[in-house]
């Protein structure tokens, strides 16, 4: 099988740039429209938008662990990029390629905030279930992880990931 070529790697990078741009633009809009203001209620007692600066993760857990999140993101994106580079460039692997691109984009969207601001800008709140306030990058991560699980459980076989196994001259 042919490994991902420069065109495929360029698609990965452009996908990340585009998705991160969308994430950052929504955060800029949220700051402009919501910071220091009352929540904008879209659906009463269900969905509202309000601005929150989060130094942790969901529900403020691990608040102040900025360095940990930065290092973890670099490691995760590094692993994803390695897999993308090694991945065969086939139609069969396209869903996996897309999911990894979206996952890396979500991780990097929040990484940009943590690196430049020291916190993540969150602004979407599902009041109905008291879900943690989140942002577009969080949506990328959540949706891609769910899709990743579905692909692994129902679409791909173990042999589809043989490209990740070390190959050497000694065959046993």
UniProtKB/TrEMBL annotation:
The keyword Ubl conjugation does not apply. Keywords: Aspartyl protease, Cell membrane, Hydrolase, Membrane, Protease, Transmembrane, Transmembrane helix. Pfam families: Peptidase_A8 (PF01252). GO terms for molecular function: aspartic-type endopeptidase activity. The chain crosses the membrane at residues 57-85, 92-112, 132-156. It catalyses: Release of signal peptides from bacterial membrane prolipoproteins. Hydrolyzes -Xaa-Yaa-Zaa-|-(S,diacylglyceryl)Cys-, in which Xaa is hydrophobic (preferably Leu), and Yaa (Ala or Ser) and Zaa (Gly or Ala) have small, neutral side chains. It is a multi-pass membrane protein. It is an enzyme of class 3 (hydrolase). InterPro entries: Peptidase_A8. It is found in: Cell membrane. Pathway: Protein modification; lipoprotein biosynthesis (signal peptide cleavage). It comes from the Bacteria. Its EC number is 3.4.23.36. The keyword rRNA-binding does not apply. This protein specifically catalyzes the removal of signal peptides from prolipoproteins. This is Lipoprotein signal peptidase. The gene is lspA.
